[in-house]
């Protein structure tokens, strides 16, 4: 099962981490060449690579979100202490203690 998931990851995401490293290396090389002087072809290529890197970074973010979600589902369902602890932390983080009004004064009630 693990092997087939690895193959699926490479097929679907084309190994995000490899693509990210490769794009960053190419962008570094292009940047070095552009420092020597302007080059229309390299400037266009740089724009295209930045757009591609942006997509790869979004895919990486989705991948990490999915992995964290799997951990939550795995541990959250079986470990109520973990589930309640994570809920309390999220509740504290989202709690609003004070607001600033139109007069730039902090209101706590």
The succession of helices and strands, N to C, reads HHHHEE
Structural category: mainly alpha
Q: What's the average pLDDT?
A: 83
Helix content: over 70%
Strand count, sense and barrel status of the largest sheet are: 2 strands, antiparallel
- If helices are DSSP runs of H or I spanning 4 or more residues, what is the number of helices? 4
Q: How many domains in all?
A: 1
List keywords for this structure.
4% strand, two-stranded antiparallel ribbon, mainly alpha, 109 residues, 80% helix
Helices and strands in order:
Blueprint: H1 2-13, H2 16-36, H3 40-78, H4 80-94, E1 99-100, E2 106-107
Antiparallel strand pairs: 1-2
Helix pairs in contact: 2-3, 3-4
């Amino acid at each position: 099962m693990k092997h087939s998931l690895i193959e699926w990851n490479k097929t679907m995401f084309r190994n995000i981490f490899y693509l990210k490293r490769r794009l960053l290396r190419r962008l570094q090389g292009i940047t070095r060449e552009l420092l020597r002087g302007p080059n229309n072809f390299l400037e266009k290529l740089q724009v295209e690579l930045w757009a591609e890197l942006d997509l790869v970074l979004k895919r990486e973010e989705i991948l990490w979100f999915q992995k964290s979600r799997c951990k939550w589902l795995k541990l959250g369902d079986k470990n109520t202490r973990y589930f309640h602890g994570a809920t309390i932390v999220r509740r504290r983080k989202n709690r609003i203690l004070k607001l600033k009004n139109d007069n730039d004064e902090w209101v706590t009630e």
